[in-house]
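Weekly structure sync, notes
Attendees: PL, DS, HV (note-taker this week)

Item 1: Major facilitator superfamily (MFS) profile domain-containing protein
DS walked through the input record. Source organism listed as Thyridium curvatum. Sequence as pasted into the shared doc:
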Amino acid sequence: MQIIPLDGGVGGDEVADIERQPVFVDFNYPHDPRLPLNWPLAKKVYVQVVLGLFILVGTITTSIMGPAQRMITAEFQVADEVAVLNTSLFMVGYIAGFLVFGPLSEKFGRKWPLITGMGASSAFSAMPALGRDTATILAGRFLAGFFGVACMAVMGGVASDCFTLSHRGVAMPVVVAVVFLGPTFGAVVGSAVVALSPSWRWTSGAVAIAGFVLSAASCVALPETYPPAILRSEAARLQMNSGVLEVRSALDKEGFTLEHIARVYLIRPFWLLATQPILALLTLYQAFLHGVLFLFYQSYPYLFGTIRGWPQQLSALPLLGINAGVLVGTAGIILYNQLYFRHLHHVAAEVADGAYIPEARLPPMILGGVLIPVGLFWYAWTSSPEISWASTACASPLIGCGMYLVFIQGFNYIVDCYTSMANGAMGINGSVRCSFAAAFPLFASQMFRELGVAYATTALGAISVCLVPVPVCFWYWGDRIRSWSRRRIVV
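Item 1 (cont.): predicted structure, written out as tokens:
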């Protein structure tokens, strides 16, 4: 690493006085081995695997208590809606957590907000496992969600720290796939735990134990990936060992003030949502689909358990079809991204600035938008007990693949359109999505009981059909909308 004074170069007469001057620690660009972009591939993959474990535990926690709702209702003599709050309040915690852990990861790096968030989430997950009243259970779920969102808040940052743009075309699809796999696994695992364990409380206790173990191991096993935080550690080491009075890192030079936090992370995201039609429409589309996904965690156990009469430990298993579709979508997106960047590299050789169009992200999203209503209508009209369960289950991969394509390419499109403000744009996108995921389960039981699975899901399919034109419109007019929108960004 280089050590240079903050106020300029070091002259011959100044060398003797360097210990009395503030000095600035920086990397030897571009090939410094301490820079995460230059780490060996095996180390980068290792970091992504550990991050994936954090995301898996965090997202499983979102839905693992859903199958315990009947037991909570019976034990505490509360209404169904109160029991459903154990899922909804967890997602409400996500909404607030997105606005906190984003700036924390920019100030303190990725590692410690991630570990602290998971450790605190695990501690609060113990409250439902040990609580003796609904207030304790619901407060624990909210706080577990608030801190548990840390893994989601840092995942994009970790990928951008370790991988170039073209390599992120492989890394990000895999990480986002884990985000989708987790809640579905949570519903399946929760059903099995409720049916086979001595108490429903093990749904929360199991993830608390897993989170504690993962957090403790990562304290020593997970390296920091945020370059300014690495510089800060190096500056602290040099200051301790070299006798220099003041050693600073790039992080100290940023001026990370409360005003900066409020403007970038609290005001700008809402301003972007209010003034940017691309962000607003994509966020609405993805938020609706996120809500539908959490509706399914109520619908599948009701359809296969209550209507078809499957035992509880098996009633959520057809949800794994959604995960199968996610895996197919992940493979397809990785292939598409490799072809996309290969073509981009070819075009960049002919275009002076190497520019590319964000709208090139949209074809897989359009395909996903078509697959979703097809899967929903299929699921709806094969839900009758007179029709084989296998036909109903076959709709799940279409829904899972379609949702994954809409989400991953929607995320990429937002980042491409708002590169310099991607943190704010993705933060408000995540908060709105979580608000839908928190609200939809509250009316799931009434909707499926009163309308029936067929008509309720048909209504969802009809709404999803109405949203298919969103990416199609951006494909045709996205460039014009972006050029108009840029003039409205003032925050």
